[in-house]
């Protein structure tokens, strides 16, 4: 049975690579694994068939030989553990790469998602003007720490790993705010991730789904 993932039938970001299926596509491309994509509408995401795969009615999901997974961190880790190229051979280095995967989704992403919510969904609230600078500063605090750690290194811990894949994917979500550009070290780090051929293939695949039809 081929690997099948789910993705938005029409992504809210218009195919700019911010939807979470991009992370899974990227991991599969890095591992050189073929996969099918089943597109899901917003309505279908809340129906029983999809809820049986993802109890929270989100995307992506991952199906292979009877295994069903949800949550991008878990999916990317599964791919990385079973196929070469995304985790180091050395046991300690592998553990550190996994730690960076958790750091991406547990430490760096939450304030970024809070910023997205504050800017897009709460921007018209009367208290938004006072709250937004506080949210932005929490994002900057995390980016300062990450930038200081990365320094002049190419990747977070030796060669590119699943930790970098998840971290770059998370940082891409803050770029529309302009805050990423305040941290040249991180902006360059993200650009290196985007330049990887596997990411380019994943991005192009997601964009193709969302490209407007030719007249």
UniProtKB/TrEMBL annotation:
* InterPro entries listed in its UniProt record: Glutathione-S-Trfase_C-like (IPR010987), Glutathione-S-Trfase_C_sf (IPR036282), Glutathione_S-Trfase (IPR040079), Glutathione_S-Trfase_N (IPR004045), Thioredoxin-like_sf (IPR036249)
Q: Which domain of life is it from?
A: Bacteria
Entries under PROSITE patterns matching the protein? GST_CTER (PS50405), GST_NTER (PS50404)
What's the protein called, per UniProt?
Glutathione S-transferase family protein
Species of origin reads: Massilia pinisoli
Q: What lineage, starting at the top, does this entry show?
A: Bacteria, Pseudomonadati, Pseudomonadota, Betaproteobacteria, Burkholderiales
Domain GST N-terminal, chain residue ranges per copy? 8-87
- Note the Pfam families from the entry: GST_N
Residue ranges of domain GST C-terminal in the record: 90-215
């Amino acid at each position: 049975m081929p690997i099948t993932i789910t993705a938005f039938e029409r992504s809210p970001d218009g195919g700019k690579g911010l939807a979470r299926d991009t992370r899974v596509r990227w991991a599969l491309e890095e591992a050189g694994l073929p996969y099918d994509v089943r597109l899901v509408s917003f309505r279908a995401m809340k129906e029983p068939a999809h809820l049986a795969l993802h109890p929270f009615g989100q995307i992506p999901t991952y199906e292979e030989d009877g295994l069903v997974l949800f949550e991008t961190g878990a999916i990317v880790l599964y791919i990385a553990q079973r196929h070469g190229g995304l985790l180091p051979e050395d046991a300690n280095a592998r553990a550190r790469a996994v730690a960076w995967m958790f750091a991406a989704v547990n430490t760096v992403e939450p304030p970024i998602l809070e910023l997205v919510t504050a800017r897009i969904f709460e921007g018209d609230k009367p208290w938004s003007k006072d709250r937004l600078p506080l949210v932005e500063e929490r994002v900057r605090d995390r980016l300062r720490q990450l930038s200081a750690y990365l320094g002049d290194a190419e990747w977070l811990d030796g060669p590119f790993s699943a930790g970098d894949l998840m971290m770059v994917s998370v940082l891409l979500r803050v770029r529309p705010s302009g805050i990423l550009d305040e941290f040249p070290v991180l902006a360059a780090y993200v650009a290196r991730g985007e330049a990887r051929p596997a990411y380019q293939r994943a991005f192009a695949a997601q964009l193709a789904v969302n490209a407007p039809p030719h007249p």
